Amino acid sequence: MSSVAPFPFDNPATERFAIRADELGVRYSLKLTRKQTIRDSVVRRVRREGDPDFWALRNVSFGVMQGESLGVIGPNGAGKSTLLQVLAGILLPSEGVVEVDGHISSLLTLGVGFDEDLSGVENIRLAGAFMGIDHEVVEERLAAIIDYADLGQFIDAPIKTYSSGMRARLGFSIATSVEPDILLLDEVLATGDAVFREKSKQRVLELVRQAKAIVLVTHDMNWVTDYCNRAILIERGLIVLDGKPEEVVALHQEHAAQRKAEAAAKGVLQLRRPRPGRRR
Prior knowledge:
This protein is an alpha/beta fold. The chain has eight helices and ten strands.
């Protein structure tokens, strides 16, 4: 039976865990899609061409300790973002259990939850309400959130006028202002200008030093090796390796090189030929 359960505080053996996942699985049915007709489904079933279900995650088990910064890496489509959505409670697992100890703050997709017609200030208050923060607390932290986002006069402009980088600044500022016990981040440190990226890293490091748990999905291997004290490699919905960041990154890069070589051998990767009359 699948569930997302509160952490069992009365169990001394698990008191130091911020997150514990046991045999997680997320399944999607491929029987009918927008591009697949009923006739296609019948033919598929008659021919028995493979499993009609797709497992985005399967048999995923791990724990995150208080004070740990966990990097989650893997190729595109491996199931990394799906995992964060399960941990955040956005998706319910098809099987397995997630146990959490503490308040979770997540920044998984830029601008999710923002009201396009409201200003930055109004969206801060709206986000606070969604996160269950008392209005008085939001008002106390409002100035600090605005100052950290550093959007100038745009803070009073509608969100629909914001660039993706500006949305990232505001969203990150809100997500990290609540001093969460557990912070989930999905590639947000790869957005915005270089100054804000460095500023974001410093904020995450502050949370780590305060014994907060961090789970970060990223394609930036330098971030994983420099700032995470543990990493897991996910491929095709399965955990391939859980261990020291340097070892996990090395295996990920080795597998990536293998996939590239195999694709080149099959002729999938081909250099573009220059068009006639154009200089190379």
